[in-house]
User: Fold these one by one.
Assistant:
Number 1:
Amino acid sequence: MTTSWADLVRPPVDMTGDRVLVLGATGGIGRATVAACLGANAHVTLLDLRDPEEDVRQLRALVGEDRVAGAALDNGDKAQVARMIDELGPFTAVADCSGIYVDGDLLNDDPDSWETNFDRIMRINVLGPLNVLRAVLPEMQRCGRGRVALIGSLGARNGGSNAAVNPAYVASKGAVQSLVRSLSRSMAPHGIVVNAVAPGMIETPMMAAASHTGATQRPTIPLGRTGAPEDIGRPMAFLCSPAASFMTGMILDVNGGLYA
């Protein structure tokens, strides 16, 4: 069957009519993802631990009142997540850009302190996305379609850019990428695709904080620069769009050639 030119000649990423939920929406990658989705004509809801009220106000002035919503959310609180998504949904796509890095040395830190940080990292980086998916997937199943995009990490591939990277963070991102593979299998029969972007070294506040500890000493990047948040936001928007409707279980490595 030949598809007509009229059906083919259209913007490659058009999200008109899509309702996208972006978690971690006030961070570097989250902001870039919000911008890319709005640029593709989606309706976007911003959720973050910090209330995005001012961001919502500015975006509504830019793209219109009816295309942007937002609220504060602790994704580690499953009751709050369920309530908020019930109030603001339904959604056709979810981009979870939430995440945290806390420095830590498994062998040399005080054990209680290290475990406290481990629990915090896992709560935000792993339990948070699971709470969100538990809340959004049933409605996607009922509709017979949906797109999920999570944030992994190059660290889940190579163990971190150097030995100073906290293994708890590496473990959390490895869990996220395994979660993508697991859910892609169970959700595919319902028409739901689940993918992730695994960033390399991206100029975000989180990377800047880690740089103070030496955890992100910069290796030689083949493309000759570190990434900008937009380098991740655009692929995240792509994974939330109809353009990715035949992809699932994929981890997109976006790292300037550090992992090939």
Note: Residues 50 and 176 are 23 Å apart (CA to CA).
Number 2:
Amino acid sequence: MGRKIEVTDVILRDAHQSLMATRMAMEDMVPACEYLDKAGYWSLECWGGATFDSCIRFLNEDPWERLRTFKQLLPNTRTQMLLRGQNLLGYRHYEDSVVSKFVEKAAENGMDVFRVFDALNDPRNLEVALNAVKRTGKHAQGTICYTISPVHTVEKFVEMAEQLVEMGVDSICIKDMAALLKPQPAYDIVKGIKDRCGKDLLVHVHVHSTTGVTLVSLMKAIEAGADIVDTSVSSISLGPGHNPTESLVEMLEGTGYETGLDLELIYKARDHFAQIRPRYKEFLSEVTGVETEIFKSQIPGGMLSNMESQLKQQGQGDRMKEVLEEVPRVREDAGFPPLVTPSSQIVGTQAVFNVMMGKYKVMTGEFSDLMLGYYGKTAAGKNPDVVATAKEFGKKDEITCRPADLLLPEWEKLESEAFKLEGNNGTPEDVLTYAMFPQVAPKFFKERADGPINVGKDPALTSAKADSSHPGYLAGPIEYEVTLNGNKRKVTVAPV
């Protein structure tokens, strides 16, 4: 037998996050778990990313309960999550004790592999979370966010891998969220890491499929020595999602590399998700083909749709081209941050503001924080004129320390606030849910007892003619008045 290539399947998390706005209900994943668990994967990514937010915001589901359920349903396979370093799963930096507590509770509830990343690739924002994982005895995976810029070279990525190895990580992940990793750099980076950090270091490669080149990149990464790759069951793959698991298995046939995966079981999972998929039609990404323009703009799919809706809300939907040209300029001013949550939203929104109101005439609080170092250190220096403007807007100075060093201990405060909320169950897990999403958690705690909501629609129902036998189906257009950013607007909702 040739060299074994391990596979992580992202079907239970990133696949539906990328293709159907993280809306998949737990009940729609449960039936496939038995097949996935026995198929022979290295791990199954099933938690973290946007799932925590989506569970409490849209699905009335306790994310901790989801994790415990996965642990029961996947006894033979490692569970894996995506953790945003010092941001955990929220959108700000948390004080160190909160980060440690989150990791401890995630491990206790059933998490095995923690893929820890930072949007700016600032190792200082990874250290506390990685150390916390090490203390629990679970697998700490240090992550390098792949991006392209004049300052992001193979050598720089290899140097970051060395820093992560010094922190004691169990493996390194090269994370390519925008499908920018072309075959040759994939080969060069993996080979560079293996040469510099030792052949025994596990290297894990994660790519999306948006640009159409990354299945080849996985092949080249494997040839360079990559140990594990990420794919997704084919019925929820491609577009802004991931390369199909079955295609990877077939591609490796006769190459001397083998995954050892059981395709028959994966076909059963595929058929299950193929049946589920149409029910989430309203959330499905409209990007279904290939988008090579991303190599120019570097803009991941989720960020594109976000900027489009911002422009449309302001009645300036026709200015998208100008915004796309502005994004790389804003990114350069900010020191070339990789465009991944939350930096993608921050840079994208600022580009929209620049186009609509004039260059840096208005600056968001988040963008001024990014310019002033409150998210961490960027790969390149920042535009000093824009830094000066950020100081005026932010009414504060630039910092060079690790941002979380400025935070005061906050666990006790969070605990006392969370425990006052109706429906809170008095556990550290509930305190952490509140810490991540203080605006959403109170409503969730109050309604949790009603049980999970499945937002998938029965296709037979949505395509049926409107009649009295389908209660709840819209018979004709209904007009609503909504308030958006303080402005009232009329919205008409009509049946499809």
Note: The chain has 21 helices and twelve strands.
Number 3:
Amino acid sequence: MTGAADHRNPIVSIVALEKHFGAFRVLHHVSLDVFPGEVVCLIGASGSGKTTLLRCINQLAQQDSGAIWVDGELNGFTIANGRLHRRSEREIARQRLATGMVFQRFNLFPHLTALENIVEGPVEVLRRPRAAAAEEVQALLARVGLADKAGHYPAQLSGGQQQRVAIARALAMHPRVMLFDEPTSALDPELVGEVLAVMKELAASGMTMIVVTHELGFAREVADRVVFMDHGRILEQGPAEEVLLRPREARTQAFLSAVLG
């Protein structure tokens, strides 16, 4: 665990979140606070709503009811005269910069080098001078252990290296919160460790992180808090050791027993 969490004011606050896909309720009255410097790992079976929750935080999906605040701002809406007003797409794009998202798939541009993939956002979105942005990107590539791969194209990189480029790409936008959606699930087993090592370094540096993962060893070592989700609900949460080693709920016990064999 990082031990870096600041429990005064949450940086992400989720209240009574509901999300449906047609008649299927994906998220059911989900409430969760995440504090600056905290690492929160979301665990649970596939289909339990973990990814949808991340996508709502990042505004890639819009909730049907409830509210999310990120860095003190209400996601997607303003309040005027007691009524909610939908933000413009430009405002939503600005809000989205507060969160950096790392997906299962790397989604790198195949025709751009590692450096070019990362520098695109700071230059095109943040309007940074290209030379200054490229210098910062070189430092980010060194941070994720890829200082010598700046000129390599995605096809020349392993899956683990591509995912590390994707992490650097998210960091280049200076997010307040990093969101990871099963970032190792698409990797060969021998490549998982190199990505988790980068995530551990980020956690140790004090980065606020919300991580959807099946890597329970990582959760136990790094998470300040583990949240177990089942059928769109938060069923149990607490310190990593408590939830993973001494779960209270029968459903959590059954899940962990199945995963850990």
Note: The chain is about 35% helix and 25% strand.
